[in-house]
């Protein structure tokens, strides 16, 4: 079964995927080589090919990250009596008795 002719024309304009070709097609990730292989099996990094990112001077920059300053820090105190915390069997039984009323 094949798509209609109208769909086939629009599919041709899309990028080729690995599912549309035979085996042996390797698409890659778009990242370029940053060096070369030697005849002895080593890899030499050529630093003029390495990507570097330069951060601009941000002094006096008005924008802030998307984090509110009104956020209170979490309390480190635990509300559980023993070190097992919410996984305690005793705590589970007490809660069950409160909700169900019987043993």
- What does the overall shape look like? extended
Helix content: 10-25%
Class from secondary-structure proportions: mainly alpha
The oligomeric state of the chains shown is single chain
**Largest sheet data:** 2 strands, antiparallel
What does the average pLDDT come to? 77
Proportion of strand residues: 5-15%
Describe the structure.
The structure is a single chain. With 103 residues, the protein is mainly alpha-helical. It is built from two helices and two strands, in the order H-E-E-H. It has helices at 5-13, 89-100; strands spanning 35-37, 43-45. Strands 1-2 form a two-stranded antiparallel ribbon. It is extended. It starts with a helix and ends with a helix. Its main location: mitochondrion. Pfam families: MRP-L27. It is found in: Mitochondrion.
Write the layout of secondary structure elements.
Layout: H1 5-13, E1 35-37, E2 43-45, H2 89-100
Antiparallel strand pairs: 1-2
InterPro entries: Ribosomal_mL41 (IPR019189)
Keywords: Mitochondrion, Ribonucleoprotein, Ribosomal protein, Transit peptide
Family: Belongs to the mitochondrion-specific ribosomal protein mL41 family.
């Amino acid at each position: 079964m094949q798509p209609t002719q109208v769909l086939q024309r629009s599919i041709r304009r899309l990028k080729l995927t690995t599912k549309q070709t035979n085996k042996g097609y390797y698409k890659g990730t778009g990242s370029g080589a940053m060096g070369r292989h030697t005849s002895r099996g080593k890899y030499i990094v050529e630093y003029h090919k390495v990507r570097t990112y330069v951060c601009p001077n941000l002094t006096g920059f008005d924008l802030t990250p998307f984090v509110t300053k009104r956020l209170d820090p979490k309390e480190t105190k635990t509300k559980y009596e023993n070190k097992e915390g919410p996984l305690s069997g005793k705590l589970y039984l007490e809660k069950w008795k409160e909700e169900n009323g019987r043993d």
